[in-house]
Amino acid sequence: MQLSIGNDHAGVEYKEAIVAYLKDKGHNITNHGTNANESVDYPDFIHPVAEDVSSGKVDLGIIICGSGNGAAMTANKHQKVRAALCWTKEIVALAREHNNANILSLPARYLSIPQALAMVETYITTDFEGGRHQGRINKMPCM
Q1: By residue range, what is the domain housing residue 45?
Q2: Which residues belong to the active site?
């Protein structure tokens, strides 16, 4: 699977752990995140992930910032992006099954790295259920 990942300064350690985890599983990763702990503007690192997903360059995206909110809001400005801010594996599973989330937004300041890795595993292994959920997804875009 091809994935794109982006993070701000709050998510550096999380990104490093997630990238290592995904590479160990044989996935290809495009890294748009910062590698420094100095404060940066998260949209600069989130827009490239959303563009990768929106264009179909990658299968899925992962974005990380302190609360996960700013990253999700930024990504969701892009057509064809359904970024889900998640804080448990159960929410991740529902985001994939019911909403066909194609970007996972993680709140680094509210998760441990092991929790984040478990959520990423759920994200990449859970399929969209389709059916009645597809009609709802079709109603999401404004344009």
Answers
A1: 2-138
A2: 65, 98
